[in-house]
Amino acid sequence: MVKFYDREFNSRLLIGSALYPSPTIMQAAIRASRADIVTVSVRRESAGGKTGHAFWSLIRELDVAVLPNTAGCRSVREAVTTAKLARELFGTPWIKLEVIADDDTLQPDVVGLVEAASILTRDGFQVFPYCTEDLGVAMRLVDAGCRVVMPWAAPIGSAKGIINRDALKLMRDRLGDITLVVDAGLGAPSHAAEALELGYDAVLLNTAIAKAAEPVAMAKAFRLGVEAGRAAFEAGLMEARDFASPSTPVVGIPFWHAAP
Q1: How far, in Å, are 101, 113, 160 from residue 110 at the CA level?
Q2: 50: confidence class by pLDDT, cuts 50, 70, 90
Q3: pTM of the model
């Protein structure tokens, strides 16, 4: 079980709802992932109309928890306003908080992120902040009241996997009582497995599944990767060594000598 604020879930895979070839494939992929939490763009829903209502109906059919996000927001004011709209639309205190600094890398504005998180937690929100792998930023988000922190593995949609393993490991070691989710940049099930092997509580994916040649099959593959990574972490991975260590002991092995 994994805990997000006051709620517990079975799946350690969170999944996005954008970019799929069709609504039918989106539903099938989410079901194949067995994810309990799905992220939804507030901007898409706030547009309203038949498209927005139809999309929301599809999400409700999945019987999952909804995590609205502030994707596309580039200022504290815009992010806070969007979060308040999300609370009205979805009736949840949860918000995946994004404040973007750069259009090319989609790197978070960490200063604005901490400010927005402080405002929202004081207003009763349960904030899931999307940030870089910087430990100092993560600590400030925790000080602001966040009980979940979501550092990236690499820039959104890059599929590079974990590019700063040491920083993510340090964050996990230092923030032992905080729920940590690797969010963005994972491109293969092995990347997700690595994040769980490091002790991260969950991963969040969208592009790697939605843009795969077979999204439903890829969703299943990521589910298995997450399960394998967590199982390995709980089993206890052996430490890497600088030198070889024989798997077969040599003590007590008989030696045959030629006759004199």
Answers
A1: 8, 5, 21
A2: very low
A3: 0.88
**How many residues are listed for the chain in this entry?**
260
Smallest Cα–Cα separation from 95: which of 18, 39, 155, 178? 39
Q: How far apart are the first and last CA of the chain?
A: 67
Helix (H, G, I), strand (E, B) or coil at 117: helix
Which amino acid, residue 62? L
Question: What residues act catalytically?
Answer: 96
Ramachandran category for residue 138: left, alpha or beta (phi over 0 → left; psi -120 to 50 → alpha): alpha
Whole-angstrom distance, CA of residue 46 vs CA of residue 44:
6
Extract the tokens encoding 29: 């992929």
Which residue is listed with tokens 């998180």?
Answer: 117
DSSP string, 112-145: HHHHHHHHHHHTT-EEEEEE-S-HHHHHHHHHTT
pLDDT (mean) for 166-193: 96
- Using alpha carbons only, how large is the chain's radius of gyration in Å? 21
Round to whole Å and give the CA distance between 92 and 95.
Answer: 8
